[in-house]
Design brief:
The complex is a heterodimer of chains A (110) and B (110).
Chain A (H helix, E strand, L loop, with lengths): L3 E4 L2 E4 L4 E8 L5 E7 L6 E7 L2 E5 L6 E7 L2 E7 L7 E8 L4 E3 L3 E5 L1
Parallel strand pairs in A: 2-11
Antiparallel strand pairs in A: 1-3, 3-8, 4-5, 4-9, 5-6, 7-8, 9-10, 9-11
Chain B lengths: L3 E2 L3 E5 L4 E7 L7 E6 L6 E6 L3 E5 L2 E6 L4 E6 L8 E8 L6 E3 L3 E6 L1
Parallel strand pairs in B: 2-11
Antiparallel strand pairs in B: 1-3, 3-8, 4-5, 4-9, 6-7, 7-8, 9-10, 9-11
Classes of the chains: A mainly beta (110), B mainly beta (110).
Chain lengths: 110, 110
Amino acid sequence: ETGVTQTPRHLVMGMTNKKSLKCEQHLGHNAMYWYKQSAKKPLELMFVYNFKEQTENNSVPSRFSPECPNSSHLFLHLHTLQPEDSALYLCASSQLDTQYFGPGTRLTVL
Amino acid sequence: GQNIDQPTEMTATEGAIVQINCTYQTSGFNGLFWYQQHAGEAPTFLSYNVLDGLEEKGRFSSFLSRSKGYSYLLLKELQMKDSASYLCARSGDSNYQLIWGAGTKLIIKP
């Protein structure tokens, strides 16, 4: 079990829908991350927040919009996604180098 | 470059020993992580090596050679539950950013 939770665990959406992914960490960490995981590919870092401030944005399309209201919560707002955006979206948190992951949201875009 | 290379898939027998190798670019290196990820679940932290040598944690050990840009994860007395993907990651040049390998899928056979 981890101290990082994610909802929903599964999401199916059409290309015109708007949805949000939620992540919450109960570990007292100061940094939170969004990753995309596609089959047989390395984890792709999307966004990093440190003390609620965004420190990394790895050229992610604007149809993905992060929000970090406090150090414990992280959202990923989704709109007008493409089928190639279907993947497992993982949230993680860390205090220093070691990152702790949530169970992920399996996203399917139709 | 910052490539991390590890085998795509390995097969081993229950009760045996298996070594999963990982090579990485050495520039800007801080440390090397190993994570385990069961299908449909979150990656979970196994080990973090900063100094050269072997670190043992029960049935799992991790080795690092900084000069060679090489690490391995050694799993002893394999159990069926060890069937999972094993992810290698190195600390990157940016704070809080890890560079990930694509993972090694380990299949354990009776």
